[in-house]
Amino acid sequence: RGRPLLAPSLLAADPLCMAASIDRLGGEADALHVDVMDGRYVPNISYGPGLVRALRDRYAEAVLDVHLMVDEPERGIEAFAAAGADYLTVHVEATRHLHRLLGHIRELGCRPGVTLNPGTPVEWLRPVVHLVDLVLVMSVNPGFGGQTFLPEVLSKVRTLCQWRAVDGLSFLIEMDGGLGPANGADVVRTGCDILVAGSSVFGAADPLLALRDLRRTAQG
Ligand code: DX5
Ligand code: ZN
Predict the structure, then answer these.
(1) pLDDT at residue 3, rounded to an integer
(2) Is the per-residue pLDDT at 185 higher than 90?
(3) Nearest CA, atom 12, ligand 1
(4) Which of 30, 139, 150, 158 has the most Cβ atoms closer than 10 angstroms to its Cβ?
(5) Which ligand neighbours the alpha carbon of 183 most closely?
(6) Does the structure's ipTM exceed the value 0.90?
(7) What residue ranges in the chain does DSSP mark as E strands?
């Protein structure tokens, strides 16, 4: 479908009607973004491997983009890999052994991703970019949907693009938080390959129209 790829965040879908919400996207989402929260790393609790397994069972072909907002993610990755996650993204702030963890995620058969909070310098990722398939740049403080986009994180995307070119790497750059038709084009122009969108898609009266609208505007 071309760039950008769009990953609706299920956090904004009605938890009692998850499948119905996904089906309303008509198969036009490039990935499903699954926000896992443990009530420790972030002040909110969402869901765990059980939801990933249920999604995998029902949507065999879907790309499941699992964003782990949990402390010590090394304790949980095996369960998420077994449940059928494709991308497994961990926070640089949440583990003491990031390098080892990213290698372990790949050994488990998943695509490793790494992410960082708005207040964390992008330089923290410099030693591990060659190990990942995805770098997620948080554009809100993690924990909740429906927050306002923080434009100051865009400079991190520029830095990541430079590193990627200099090192000849091919990781994808994803942005998450406060994205919609009003800022999608800017974010893509800066260099993002994947946009996560929660409330701007599932909060709309017609999520499929909202997804198409975001695609149209973000393609510029
Ligand atoms: C925030 C989550 C996001 C969130 C995005 O902690 O990581 O994925 O669901 O929601 P919106 O698009 O509503 O900001
Ligand atoms: Zn997320």
Answers:
(1) 84
(2) yes
(3) 198
(4) 139
(5) 1
(6) yes
(7) 5-8, 32-37, 64-69, 87-91, 111-116, 134-138, 172-176, 194-197
